[in-house]
Amino acid sequence: MGSVKSIPSPAISADERSHEVDHPSSQVAHFGTEQPLRLDCGVDLSPFQIAYQTYGELNADRSNAVLICHALTGDQHVANVHPVTGKPGWWETLVGPGRPIDPKHYFIICSNVIGGCMGSTGPASINPATGKVWGLDFPVITIPDMVRAQAMLIDRLGIDTLFAVVGGSMGGMQVLQWTAAYPARVFSALAIACATRHSAQNIAFHELGRQAVMADPDWHGGGYADRGIHPHRGLAVARMAAHITYLSDAALHRKFGRRMQDRELPTFSFDADFQVESYLRYQGSSFVERFDANSYLYLTRAMDYFDIAADHGGVLAKAFADIKTRFCVVSFTSDWLFPTSESRALVHALNASSARVSFAEIETDRGHDAFLLDVPEFFDISRAFLQSAGKARGVSLKDR
Amino acid sequence: MSVQQVLPLNRVATAPSGQFRADHLLVAEMVKPGSKVLDVGCGDGDLLQLLETRGIDGRGIELSREGVNRCVAKGLAVVQGDADTDLVNYPDDAFDYVILSQTLQATRQPKVVLENLLRIGRRAIVSFPNFGFWKMRLQLLIGGHMPRTENLPATWYDTANIHFCTIKDFVQLCDEINVKMERSIALDLHGRPVPLNLPWWVWNMFGEQGVFLLSRGGGK
After folding, report:
1. Predicted confidence pLDDT, tens digits, chain A (400 residues)
2. What is the CATH number of the domain that holds B206?
């Protein structure tokens, strides 16, 4: 057999990526030793920083702030060109001029989660105690830790109550954690394609991804940064596996079928004969350009640990007792990572708490990824939900 | 039949507004302003919108995904759900009123649904097509086929309505499960109320649909 092309090496160097870790192209909120972040694992993280982007202007009575929570591999660049990849913001379908979350009406905030690698403190950041990259010395973080850090940022910005907290997938988990931990600070919550706990199947997929990273000899027990390398092959495999879970059988079939990549006949090798293989390899290699391998371990772990009911005596409804927040829950028919049944369980708990909740399941064959794609029905629902909440809150949506 | 329990409805919306359906206006008249309402089987949310204009905190459940999405896109608090299976998830006394408009006949267990309505809500408002309506009777008697009307155009084999009843049947069920009828009204084919001073059998004959305001009965 001839040469087999494996996953290509990233086009962007580790240096370019790691520069964003400590010196992000974003606004940064620094929290000194007097303001530690108390983590669920019992460690006080201090000092730490949060990188964030804002769009639009905070109104006079500070009632129009919308917090966007990003998903596992997202970041704060929700509606601007990404500083590393040069690609458009990851949620420009929903956020931006003329979109349901329009900076003309709202003061939009999106921060990189704690544990991330785009400027908020995480395993790729420099540990001030040693002067070296944290690596696996970084404490394990949880979804509640991420939200606690966001709340400190919101305090810093002088905002008491958020008009809306919006997110999909891991971002949706943060939305739910916000409402459970700070119900009075969240006027409305838009939780998309998410769940109140991570399922066994989802934990299993995450474990697969982590093992792929750790099996890469370049990982070096998490200490790759000191050696100036990055386990890009392992991380790319993790991304490829995860990416399959974001799609659906129907979407893959529609997009690729069994079509060949730049060839008519099979090569009788392990080269990427099929378009779907080529696509996955591209997804893997482009991901490692912008993401840190250890950060991937920490954030997947945070999702695994997420279980709101467990934090409230096993009864989910208790997490939302007497809550005044207006909820909108959205799921997608072909999403098998966060299936509609998970959203329905959340809705039942919210009903049991007499919360004001809207719940829509949207028909699409595009799988979990649908929440990031152009799905007009989803936008109509998001827009109407926020407008209705705006009316109730007295937030003017008129042009300023 | 507990005819004596039925009180007249004082103000009936007679002139059907161009915007809202006559039976919706009638239901809305029964709801006290400022109360909290659950509309079970809320369809496209027309009734909820009407209630909202009157300052009522309305929520909805709707079976069809299209209906739910249209409601949510109107800014209404509506969830996808099934009256037969999802009412159990609501706590006791969660609402002042629970409305079941033109849906009872499509449920699998109308009796259980009715009991749940009055567990979740302190009052229930139920409307349904009256299978004792003269046109129905005539079609069965003379035509010898399952009745179809302007409001119920589906054939027997593709109708969602699996538990038709007459006004008389419904009153008997309410008696049986100790439900008090605070108000009741029959509407004719044009959505106009059948005069109140007529006996039950006339209602059961000339009412195209019945609308009932119910509450929990005292112990018998």
Report:
1. 344 456 656 556 666 667 889 899 999 999 999 999 999 999 999 999 999 999 999 999 999 999 999 999 999 999 999 999 999 999 999 999 999 999 999 999 999 999 999 999 999 999 999 999 999 999 999 999 999 999 999 999 999 999 999 999 999 999 999 999 999 999 999 999 999 999 999 999 999 999 999 999 999 999 999 999 999 999 999 999 999 999 999 999 999 999 999 999 999 999 999 999 999 999 999 999 999 999 999 999 999 999 999 999 999 999 999 999 999 999 999 999 999 999 999 999 999 888 999 999 999 999 999 999 999 999 999 999 999 999 889 886 554 4
2. 3.40.50.150
Query: Is A4 within a domain?
Result: no
Angle between helices A275-288 and A232-246 (to 10 degrees): 120
Whole-Å CA distances, A149 to A27, A123, A283, A300: 15, 16, 30, 18
Residue in the block written with tokens 């392992």: A234
Torsion of CA A305, A306, A308, A310, to 10 degrees: -20
| Domain range enclosing B199 | 3-216
Q: How many domains does chain A have?
A: 1
Strands A186-192 and A326-332: parallel
We report the CATH number of the domain holding residue A167 as 3.40.50.1820
Residue A335 annotated to the active site: yes
Beta-carbon contacts of A71 under 8 Å, excluding residues fewer than 6 positions away, are: A167, A168, A169, A170, A171
Domain membership flag for residue A10: no
- CB < 8 Å from A in window 77-116 of B: 77-81, 86, 89-91, 94
Taking alpha carbons only, the member of A182, A173, A237 closest to residue A205 is: A237
Q: Is residue A289 part of a domain?
A: no
Q: DSSP letter at B141? A: I
CA of A231 to nearest chain B CA: how many angstroms apart? 44
As a dihedral over the C-alpha atoms of residue A244, residue A248, residue A252, residue A257, rounded to 10 degrees, the angle is 120
β B95-101/B121-129 pair status: parallel
- DSSP secondary structure letter of residue A95: B
**Residue A361 contacts residue B80 (beta carbons within 8 Å):** yes
| Domain assignment of residue A52, yes or no | yes
Instruction: Please give the residue range of the domain that contains residue A116.
Output: 17-199+307-393
Residues 340-399 of A with CB under 8 A from B: 344, 347-348, 351-352, 354, 356-363, 377, 380-381, 383-385, 387-388, 391
pTM: 0.90
Domain count within chain B: 1
Pairwise CB contact (< 8 Å): A351 & B80: no
Place of tokens 């004969």: A273
Contact at CB, B94 and A380, closer than 8 angstroms: no
Contact B19, B40 (CB under 8 A): no
Tell which residue, A55, A125, A92, has the closest CA to residue A295. Answer: A125
Of residues A352, A377, A383, nearest to B90 (C-beta): A352
